[in-house]
Fold Cytochrome P450.
Amino acid sequence: MNMIINETLRLYPPVLAITRRVGKKVNLANKLILPANIEVSVSTLAFQHNPDIWGADVHLFKPERFSEGIVKATNNNSMAFLPFGFGPRFCVGSNFAITEAKIALVMILQRFHFTLSPAYIHSPSQRITTRPQHGLQIILHAL
Ligand code: HEM
C-alpha cells in the first residue's frame, strides 16, 4: 500500500509548491545568485513530473516504481520526491496522514471492492490543495 500512496502523492501532490524567503544573498553552485529578501517557490509538481528524474513513463501511474525505495525510484535524486516537503520544515503530520489513509482504505476494502464510475472526469485542480474538480465517483460492490 505504501507504493500506491507514494505514487498517488507523486502524480497528484496535495501541496503544489513550497515557498521560502531568501534570508541573505546566496550563490547556488555558481549557477544562480539569489538576492536577499526574495521569495522562492519550489514546485513539487515540476520535480515529481520531471522525465529526466522519473523516466519516460513519468506521467503513468506505476506504483511499482517505488518497489525498491525512493532513492531508486528517483534515480538517486530523493529530494525530487517531496510531497511532504524537505529539511527542518518537513511535514510533522506525514505519518499521521499516511496511517489515516491506510486505515480508511482498509476499512473500505474489508467490505467492498470498487470500480471507477463512467461519470468520472479526470481533472485534477487546485483549491488550496489538489483535488478532483468534479468529484470522484466510484461504484461500490459489497463483498
Ligand atoms: C497528505 C497529507 C499532507 C500533505 C501532502 C502535507 C504536506 C506538507 C508540506 C509539503 C509541508 C511543508 C511546508 C513547507 O515546507 O513550507 C507540511 C508542513 C506541515 N504539515 Fe503537513 N501535510 C499533510 C498532512 C498533515 C497533517 C495531517 C498534519 C497535522 C496533523 C500536518 C501538519 C503540518 C505542519 C504542522 C507543518 C509545518 C511543519 C513545520 O513548519 O515545522 N500535515 N505539510
In short: DSSP finds five helices and eight strands in the chain. The CA atoms of residues 108 and 140 lie 9 Å apart. Residues 14-15, 18, 83-85, 89, 91-93, 96-97 surround protoporphyrin IX containing FE (CB under 6 Å).
